[in-house]
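#onboarding

Welcome to the new folks! Below is a worked example of what a typical request in this channel looks like: someone posts a single protein sequence, and someone else replies with the predicted structure as tokens. Don't worry about understanding the tokens yet, we'll cover that in week two.

Example request:
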Amino acid sequence: MIGLFAGRGALPDIVARHLRQDGRVPVVCELEGQTPAISVAVPRLGYRLETLGSTLETLRLMGVTDLCLVGALDRPALDPARLDAETRPLMSRLSAALARGDDGTLRALISILEDRGFAIRAVQDLVPDLLPPSGVLTAAAPPPGTEVDAAAGEAEVARMGLADAGQACVVREGQVIAREGPEGTDAMLDGLKGAPRPSRPPADPVSWLFDTATDLVGDAADWLSNTSEGRKGSGAILFKAPKPGQDRRADLPVIGPETARRAVEAGLSGIVIEEGGVMIVDRTRTIATLDAAGAHLWVRPHGGAA
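Example response:
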């Protein structure tokens, strides 16, 4: 039996529905105050971080052997006064985990769950169709220069990953003009519509290599509004990929129709995602949104052209 530690977004419902259709009814674990939107009838189990230990014991008694971390969760505060007896021995590990970046927190949590005897299943293993095939999925092909921008995006996400600080950026003519922050990809794209300047990277915890040419871009909205060579859109792309060395059993990047809509509204010419590393929610509608705008979607192998 499988348990889903579920959060916000479309993925928890997709996974729950897929498992139900496959004859496997999951137990959905929902963090207090952060109820996932699940459209099918499944057993639900509420928990607090301070009761994680007893929650895991309850799952074991229910026959759960596998766990999947799916959806976004706001990082909860840990109240030592509310710890139950089963969770108290985990206090130091939980506190240390919450002090890390997203990937570090998830790695620590996965370690705790595995130590309790649970197998961790990746979303993409449960619903393989969420990972698209390699190649161009839209009617429009990437224009000349996209490979240069994709390579720059890949390098930037790698730098961001060293700081555990995001999985996406926007690139135009080889220059990074926006980076994903804690608010996520949608917020980054929305900010391009009127952002005064491209965002700078966070403080340098790992010898950040920052391209100073980005400082010369000026107003991001103006930059995106300049078209060249008769291309549709600005020529800029959204690039999205996992962090280097990321444990892909949790927090694999996702795009969907809303990402496509925001990219089009921000004036981008297309989206490039890493093959095998980014899931697409509602692929049909995502592609249709980009097709309607003449934008492209390229599922690119890591490190080079298809």
